[in-house]
Amino acid sequence: MYIQTPDGKPAEGDENCFRFAWTALPRTLDAMASFGMLTELPAPSAPTLTTYGLAIQDFQPGTQPDQATANRIAEYRAAYQAVMDATEAEPTGIPTYKLMNNDGFLVTVAEINTALTTYEAHPHVDIAEMPMGDPTWRYWMAFLRRARTHGGFRTH
User: Fold this and answer.
1) pLDDT tens-digit series, residues 2-31
2) Pick from 77, 87, 73: which is nearest to 152 by CA?
3) Is it the case that residue 122 has pLDDT exceeding 80?
4) What whole-number distance in Å separates Cα of residue 65 and Cα of residue 126?
5) What are phi and psi for residue 39, nearest 5 degrees?
6) Coil, strand or helix: which one is 127?
7) Percent of the chain at pLDDT above 70?
8) Which residue in 18, 78, 91, 136 could disulfide with 24, CB within 3.0 to 4.6 Å?
9) Is 110 exposed, middle or buried (0-12, 13-18, 19+ CB in 10 A)?
10) In whole angstroms, what separates CA 97 from the centre of its chain?
11) CA dist 133 to 60, 102, 117, 128, 136, Å?
């Protein structure tokens, strides 16, 4: 996962990336659910290549498509990006599906803000980030707070 700047570019620096250990993501999602930070929404469907008259071969390195194919590729990429960037008009938390895969979904500033506001409203929340607890949790919270002040983050 990497923090995205407001112009859509990956932010540079190690502090702008977060990687879960294989066993840490389920624990983190459980904790987020317990704090009310997640929202359960169906994962949207990405557009298919065939809808745009494309095949995987159209995306191979070194391929020089004709203008009509290049236009369809651009349309497909725009439609795909729209799905990856989609959010609720009034977010109620971070959609779980965005964190459960690495398809490149954008977790928006609004989604992060709602999740952190809900989390920080819990009494004694400071205990959750103490060093004796789950070490992933406090780093994850720091990452979310940093992402909130930038442009959100992408799940890759």
Assistant:
1) 999 988 899 999 999 999 988 899 999 999
2) 87
3) yes
4) 55
5) -130, 140
6) helix
7) 98
8) 136
9) middle
10) 9
11) 47, 27, 21, 7, 9
